[in-house]
Amino acid sequence: MAKSKNHTGHNQIYKNHRNGIKKTRRPRKMSMAGMNCRFVRNQAFAKRGMQKLTAEEKAEQLTAQKEAQKKVDEKRKAERQGWESDDLTSGRDQ
Hints:
The chain is mainly alpha-helical. The chain has helices at about 10-20, 35-50, 55-90.
């Protein structure tokens, strides 16, 4: 007995293009599924708290945030310098 044909793509391109091939819609909000649930809860409470602030309080909070970020950046910079000096003294580059 002769083998029968398993598959053909005949007419499929035509059918697909009849209604147009569309790009998928991008979600408006990122999915929280699989995220740390403690983080997600805290983020929701923080967003609600930010809505109640006045303009002065927002400005205060922004300056405090910038100062905290400066401290973190300085700490990271100091750690990096410590690592670089360790690399030089350990003799890795020889």
